[in-house]
Design a protein that fits this description.
- By secondary structure, this protein is of the alpha/beta class.
- The chain contains nine helices and seven strands.
- The protein has a domain of 172 residues: Vaccinia Virus protein VP39 (Rossmann fold, 3-Layer(aba) Sandwich).
- Strands 3-2-1-4-5-7-6 form a seven-stranded mixed beta sheet, sandwiched between helices.
- The site of S-adenosyl-L-homocysteine (SAH) has 20 residues, from β2.
Length: 254
């Protein structure tokens, strides 16, 4: 079981597989006022940077589930490097339908909401692992500028304009699902560059080392077109943020 190999190639050098930066991940951890021992579940945990740094900085205890064998292995290595291997566990597997045996205080899915069939489905899935008064964390794109045409949406690698909402619409949608938005940290264009532009050097180095690989023509084509595509579309039109939500129907401990 694994994700398509192309992602394991283009994102093999990423610690964070999203437009959020290490600084903003730290801002988010501080904003959530995490206490030592806080239990965090992360579906689509990638290379584990969020759980590992929050374990180091706030003493959280975490479990991550990710379908990439490479990213899961990198997450375990990162935990060892940061000295938090005893606090975080990374499971290589499909997170669709994953519910933790023990309830958690924070249940997250950051940039992988297809795992629950979209934002609403993923919030519903995360809620099943959450203790009363716990926090759901969702990382999701939104339209920073509404694309004038469907072609522009496809340039952002969306299938249609309808794939995403504007920021006000996205925030309102959480309310319609019965959640208060209690915090948010938004990415910016520099963050998008860190996520997208970091793939270019990785692709170039991989091509130099693997010229005869069956994916070499595809990677070659991508390297030739991605900088202009990114600057024309994603960088201009797509926003991204992590949103912290609390159910309006469940009160936490006093
Ligand atoms: N949250 C991480 C990773 C986001 S990228 C970060 O911010 O760095 C999306 C991740 O979802 C990738 O690591 C990919 O391997 C993982 N993924 C994709 N489909 C999945 C599935 N069905 N179950 C678990 N993980 C999945």
């Amino acid at each position: 079981m694994d994700i398509p190999r192309i992602f394991n190639i283009t994102e093999r050098a990423h610690r964070i597989h999203n437009p959020i930066t290490p600084e903003k991940l730290a801002t988010l951890g501080a904003a959530l006022r995490l206490e030592p021992g806080t239990r965090v579940l992360d579906l689509g945990s990638g290379s584990g940077e969020m759980l590992c740094t929050w374990a180091r900085d706030h003493g959280i205890v975490g479990t991550g589930v990710d379908m990439s064998r490479l990213f899961s292995a990198q997450a375990a290595q990162r935990a060892a490097a940061l000295g938090v291997a005893g606090r975080v566990t990374f499971i290589h597997g499909d997170a669709a339908g994953y519910i933790s045996a023990e309830k958690v205080d924070v249940a997250a899915c950051v940039g992988a909401t297809w795992i629950g069939g979209g934002v609403a489905g993923t919030i519903g899935l995360l809620a099943r692992s959450l203790s009363a008064g716990g926090i759901v964390l969702v990382g999701e794109p939104y339209w920073r500028r509404l694309p004038p045409t469907e072609e522009v949406a496809r340039g952002c690698l969306a299938s249609a304009i309808a794939d995403f909402l504007t920021l006000p619409e996205l925030l309102a949608s959480f309310g319609h699902l019965g959640y208060d938005v209690v915090e948010m940290v938004l990415a910016d264009q520099d963050g998008w560059d860190r996520y997208e532009a970091a793939k270019w050097l990785t692709m170039r180095r991989w091509l130099d080392a693997n010229p005869d690989d069956e994916l070499a023509p595809e990677i070659r084509e991508k390297l030739g077109t991605e900088p202009v595509r990114h600057a024309t579309f994603t960088r201009e039109y797509l926003g991204w943020g992590v949103f912290a939500l609390m159910s309006r129907h469940s009160a936490g401990p006093a």
